[in-house]
Design goal:
Order of helices and strands: EEEEEEEE
Number of helices: 0
Strand content: over 45%
Oligomer: single chain
Number of strands: 8
Helix content: under 10%
Shape: elongated
Structural class: mainly beta
Distance between the termini: 38 Å
Radius of gyration: 16 Å
Length: 109
């Protein structure tokens, strides 16, 4: 996986307790399915992001397992209601075990 800073956008950086936050993320990755062949006719090995997780202060917020049907540069959008201020940690892991991590801070009043 090419080392690229993922894009993360929270619709609000500061929220009241119980208020919904919309999170949008995008990570650059080729997401090679393993079904295509190169110009010599040899299969191109599968190389996808296979897991994505988001935690707030170490507590699970959102996550999913991906398959080869997901397009290049996976984009995720999800909503959650933070109960406390802290650091959101986003983690993408690909087939080779390469991890891309990013963080965002959120304040709950």
């Amino acid at each position: 996986m090419v080392e690229v800073k993922p894009r993360i956008k929270l619709d609000k950086q500061s929220v009241k307790k119980g208020e919904t936050v919309v999170v949008k993320t995008l990570v650059s990755h080729i997401m090679e399915t393993g079904f295509r062949k190169d110009v010599a006719g040899k299969p191109i090995p599968r190389m996808i992001v296979n897991t994505f997780t988001c935690e707030l202060n170490g507590k699970f917020v959102f996550g999913c397992d991906l398959e080869s049907a997901v397009s290049a540069n996976p984009y995720f959008e999800f909503k959650f209601k933070p109960e406390e201020s802290g650091t959101l940690k986003f983690i993408w892991v690909d087939d080779e075990g390469v991890r891309v991590e990013a963080t965002e801070t959120i304040k709950v009043t």
